[in-house]
Structures are given as C-alpha cells and as structure tokens.
Design brief:
The chain is mainly α. It contains seven helices and five strands.
Length: about 300
C-alpha cells in the first residue's frame, strides 16, 4: 500500500508529462492565434488602401515643402541679402523747358459786401433825378462805363482806391489828383505827369476827352474857374519869361568877368588869398579869392584888428 500524502516516483513522472503537454498546447494555441492577427491588419490595409495612399502623399508633400522653403531663395530675398554695388557716376540728359505746377484750390463763391456809392449832386441845377443808364442786377462795371445817369449827366466809373471826396478844379492838388491822372492813363487818356499832384491844363483837357468817349458833353466851366485858370496860365507864362530873362542876365554878367579874368592871367598878376570873416556861412578855414583892391582893404582891416 502507498502512504497517503507522499508522492512517489511514478507520480513525479506523470506530473512532468502533464506539464509538458500543457506547455505544448499553449504554444500551439499561440501559434494558431498569431497568423490571425496579421491577417486582420492586412484586411484593414486592403480595405483603406486609398486613404493610406492619400495620407502618404500628403506627408511626402509636407516634407518636400519644408525642405524647399528652407533652402529655396526668391530673387527679392537674394537682392536684399546681396552686397551693395560699388558707387559710380550717375548721368542724366539736361533738358530746357517751362516749369509748371498745377494747384487745385477749393473755395466758396459768394457775393461781396455791398458798397454804398454817394453821388455829388451839388453842381447839378435843379432836382437830382435818376434819368437813365441804370445797370441791371449782376452787371459788371468796368472802367469808363456808366454807373448811373443823374439829371442827364453821367456817373463815369474810374479805377482807384481813394473815394472822390471833392470836385477836381483847375489848380487844386492832392492825392486824389494823382489817382485821377493814373486812372486816366490806364484807360488811354493823357492827363499829364502822374507824379504831379496838381490839376493842371493837361488834366483839364483829359476831362473833356473823357466825356467825349462816354458820349456826353464836358461840364461847363463857370466864370470864377475860368478867371482862375486864366490867371494861373498868366502866372505860369510870366514865371517862364522871368526865368529866361534871369538866364540871359547871368550869361551877360558872366561875359565881362571871364574877360577880366583872362586879362589878369595874361599880365601875370596874382590875386592875394586871405581868410577874413564873412557874413555868409562858410566852413572853417575856407579861402576866398578877392580882387587886388579888396584884398588890400581886407589886409588892412586884419592888421588893425591885430593891433
């Protein structure tokens, strides 16, 4: 009989055989399972072949783009990174012509402030009534145009900044006369020298021509103005005659003196030069040449003053 609980030699052999059988079975099962897993992966790849192809193509494109972007250089980048060229002479053809610049300005067009014009009607006989030549609204009044007609007399437009504050008569002077002469010259009429501020004969004659161009008769000159005008003309002619007579007298006086000086030089006489007090203002130490007789009297007076 065998004792219970204690293995025998036969039992050990049986156990080893069972263990070997168990390990062999497990290895067979694992060998059977492995071909099944690889077969499943192959089936998945076969079913999604197009997807895998697209994924591989995208990956290849990404890698190629990174490589090209890293090593490829554009012409602009190459020019920016290149060294600057050596400085050289720059030439350009020279041309002649007019220079012009177009300037565009923005503005607002509007009517200017109205200007009140006062017409002097003191010289008009009778009532000062507007008889015609009334300009239309918006009309432009140029020089020599008629602004209004009062009692048959025209109001003529002339350029100038100074208002006409008085009636210009023969003999008056002032800046308004200068402005009148300048205005007459601007419209082609000769009123005399514009720098002369006196209303003279030429200015009076230009007034007649001004009214003739406007189509009206020149204003009549009253007796007082005519008398003053005649008197001033007489004074002017007398002044000219007096100036001519003085020139002739000076020439006549200069003749004998020149002859006497020439005769003195021929005889070899010398006129003494002295310095004496003079009633006329003179600079200090100024010398005066005298005749022999005057020089001797001056010398005597000087000696007496020294004594």
């Amino acid at each position: 009989m065998r004792e219970r609980g204690r293995p025998t030699a036969g039992d050990d052999e049986t156990t080893d055989a069972l263990a070997s059988l168990t390990i062999a079975d497990r290895q067979g099962e694992e060998a059977t399972r492995r071909p099944g897993r690889f077969a499943g992966i192959g089936a998945v790849v076969a079913r999604n072949r197009l997807l895998w192809i697209v994924a591989v193509a995208a990956l290849v494109s990404l890698v190629a783009g990174l490589v090209i972007g890293r090593f490829a250089v554009s012409p602009e980048d190459a020019a920016a990174g290149a060294a600057p060229p050596a400085p050289g002479l720059i030439t350009a053809p020279v041309g002649f012509g007019a220079l012009s610049t177009d300037v565009t300005l923005r503005g607002e067009v509007a009517f200017a402030d109205p200007v009140e014009v006062t017409v002097d009607t003191t010289t008009i006989q009778g009532a000062a009534v507007v008889t015609g030549r009334v300009p239309a609204a918006g009309a432009e009044l140029a020089p020599l145009s008629i602004a209004l007609e009062v009692a048959g007399r025209p109001v003529i437009v002339l350029p100038g900044e100074l208002p006409a504050y008085r009636t210009l008569r023969f003999g008056v002077s002032g800046p308004d006369v200068v402005q009148f002469k300048t205005a007459m010259r601007s419209i082609g009429l000769d009123a005399g020298d514009p720098t002369d501020d006196e209303f003279d004969e030429a200015a009076a004659q230009s007034v007649t021509e001004l009214y003739a161009q406007a189509g009206y008769a020149a204003p009549a000159i009253d007796d007082g103005d005519a008398a003053v005008r005649a008197a001033e003309e007489a004074v002017a002619s007398s002044t000219q005659a007096l100036a001519a007579a003085r020139k002739e007298l000076a020439a006549a006086q200069a003749g004998p003196s020149a002859a006497r000086a020439a005769s003195t030089r021929r005889t070899g006489s010398r006129s003494p030069i002295c310095r004496t007090p003079s009633p006329w203002p003179s600079s200090p130490g100024r010398s005066w040449a005298r005749s022999p007789r005057r020089a001797s009297s001056a010398r005597r007076s000087t000696r007496r003053s020294r004594r």
